[in-house]
Design brief:
With 333 residues, the protein is an alpha/beta fold. Helices cover 48% and strands 17% of the residues. The chain has 14 helices and ten strands. The protein has helices at residues 4-39, 55-62, 65-68, 80-89, 98-106, 150-161, 178-186, 197-205, 229-234, 236-255, 257-267, 275-283, 298-307, 323-330; strands spanning 41-47, 71-77, 94-95, 111-120, 124-127, 141-144, 171-174, 192-195, 209-213, 219-228. The strands form three sheets. A five-stranded mixed β-sheet has the order 7-6-8-5-9, with helices on both faces. Strands 2-1-3 form a three-stranded parallel β-sheet, with helices on both faces. Helix 7 packs parallel to helix 8 (197-205). The radius of gyration is 25 Å and the shape is globular.
Length: 333
């Protein structure tokens, strides 16, 4: 029989062995996770803001679809005019501002739209509380993000629909991102603003008045991804994997509203009782297959062509390349 001292030494040895084994086990897990993280391919997705227009990219990250494709998705908020420059330089893999990609491609810059999320905006024309109709905006100041943006096109199409000349009857001014537009309206530095769904809700809580949803008056590319022609030629496999993750998200967004409800409520500050209305508004302009009709690119295309001096011959169909998306879609069950 073992003495008490022997048993104590054996027990102590067992404890040390167990502790050592446990430390080795933990170390191996950490190394495995580190190796796994290192094996992911970094890809930069530049978006203008965290809102509905870029929601498929954020949701793909939240649902783990990018990681499932071996991608370390780095989503950065960047001014839309800088996104194309980043794509051309190679510092950015995807630009999320399709209006900027469309306008750049229209004048011969080597970029293409590779997936589109919506064929119309889900912006709203929101005014100070004393303005009760669109005609009441005659001679007033309306805030957009910048000239030539989706907010600009929506505002002008809406005013034309209601018989106002956007170049003479109202004063449209660029004030920047959604936060700036919202602050300008609530502080009453402007009389109206084009706002996204979540910004509209914040404005309403501050006493502002929503007049109309503007997307119904203007078909245009809102949200999606564009990349460089060089990237399409040199990194096709990575692009296919990225678009497969995004397309899986589009499928979920269309078929299971509950799967995206958390993102809308937590990230976009949409109240639970307002989610269904917001979701239904988004689905009215949603492109479940990720492809926009080329004719819906005509407004930003023509706007860019008119502003350019001797632009090269580029057709509307030259702005898009669906081959990568179609390859990605074919492999999604």
């Amino acid at each position: 029989m073992r003495s008490d001292g022997t048993r104590k030494r054996v027990d102590f040895f067992r404890c040390r062995c167990f502790a050592s084994a446990w430390l080795i086990f933990v170390f191996l897990i950490i190394v495995a996770r580190s190796s796994s993280a290192q094996s992911l391919k970094p890809m930069v997705f530049a978006v203008s803001t965290k809102d509905v227009s870029s929601s498929p990219v954020w949701i793909a990250g939240n649902l783990g679809y990018f990681k499932g494709e071996g991608i370390d998705a780095r989503i950065v908020v960047m001014r839309s005019d800088l996104q194309v420059a980043g794509v051309i330089s190679g510092d950015v893999d995807f630009a999320g501002s399709l209006s900027s990609v469309t306008k750049a491609a229209a004048v011969g810059i080597p970029v293409k739209i590779v997936v589109s999320f919506f064929n119309g905006g889900f912006f709203y024309l929101v005014t100070k509380p004393d303005i009760t109709n669109i005609e009441g905006l005659k001679g007033k100041v309306v805030a957009i993000s910048r000239y030539g943006s989706a907010t600009d096109f929506d505002a002008r199409a809406t005013f034309r629909h209601f018989g106002l000349d956007p170049s003479r009857d109202v004063k449209i001014i660029p004030v920047g991102g959604g936060g700036n537009r919202l602050a300008s309206l609530v502080s009453k530095r402007v009389d109206a603003a084009i706002l996204t769904i979540n910004e509209k809700l914040q404005a309403e809580r501050a006493g502002m008045r929503t007049l109309v949803s503007t997307g119904q008056y203007n078909k245009q590319p809102v949200g999606g991804l564009g990349t460089s022609v060089q990237k399409i030629r040199s990194s096709r496999d990575g692009l296919v994997r990225a678009l497969r993750a995004v397309y899986r998200t589009l499928v979920v967004m269309e078929k299971d509203r509950n799967a995206v409800k958390g993102f809308f409520e937590k990230e976009l500050a949409i109240n639970p009782e307002q989610f269904d209305d917001a979701y239904d508004a988004v689905m009215k302009v949603f492109l479940p297959n990720g492809e926009i009709d080329a004719k819906d690119l005509s407004e930003p295309y023509e706007d860019a062509r008119k502003a350019a001096t001797n632009p090269p011959p580029v057709s509307v169909n030259d702005l898009i390349d669906w081959s990568i998306l179609r390859e990605a879609r074919s492999s999604v069950k």
